[in-house]
Amino acid sequence: MITPVDVENREFKKAFRGYDANDVEEFLEELIKDYSKLYRENATLKDQNAILTESVETYKGMEETMRSAIISAQRTSEEILRNAHEQAENIVKEAKLQAKEKIDEAENRIQDKRRALAEVEARGSMLRAKLRAMLTSHMQLLDEIPEELQETKRIEPVKITEEDE
Fold first, then answer.
1. How many structural domains is the chain composed of?
2. Cα torsion at 125, 128, 132, 133 (round to 10°)?
3. 4 assigned to some structural domain
4. In terms of Cα–Cα distance, which of 122, 158, 120, 140 is closest to 19?
């Protein structure tokens, strides 16, 4: 995965009739800012997801502990069994309810972040498409320059590879 530092440290070759270096630098700075923010948000979401997963496992462990307590209470007496069973059921219900609420909340947050990520990816695709269209338009304009002008200045066409896209 490309990091914001990779984008920041990327250097491009200079070309005779290339893009305006200041424009490219300004765009890269804006891209680095946005990408850094997304990179940090992604790391935060991963941390939150790990914490929530750990919470779910804790609740599952609590449920197993409660089941063991019910078995021990059964061996002691029927009266203790009845009371312990009622308490355990209430606690399990509450724990399951809390776990379900936490899971639902986490899933909602994950869905929100996925939607946000999809929007960012869509914007990135649109930007790439616009840039490709702009490059195609400029190349067409270059192709339309009369041959007399081309011969006097000898402009070499720039080849665009998939890496440049």
1. 1
2. 60
3. no
4. 158
**C-beta separation of 3 from 39 below 8 A:** yes
- pLDDT score, position 50: 94
Tell me the per-residue pLDDT of 9-31, one tens digit each, with 9 for 90 and over: 877 777 777 777 788 888 888 88
Structural domain harbouring 48:
20-125
Flag whether 151 is in a domain: no
Identify whether 165 is part of a domain: no
First to last CA, the chain: 17
Q: Are 13 and 21 in contact (CB under 8 A)?
A: no
pLDDT tens readout for residues 115-163: 999 999 999 999 999 999 999 999 998 888 777 665 555 556 666 776 6
Q: With respect to residue 138, please indicate whether it lies within any of the assigned structural domains.
A: no
Q: pLDDT confidence of 33, banded at 50, 70, 90?
A: confident
Question: Closest by alpha carbon to 31, among 57, 2, 54, 60?
Answer: 2
Backbone angles phi, psi at 13, to 5 degrees: -70, 145
Q: Are 127 and 165 in contact (CB under 8 A)?
A: no
Express each pLDDT in 80-126 by its tens digit: 667 777 898 999 899 999 999 999 999 999 999 999 999 999 999 99
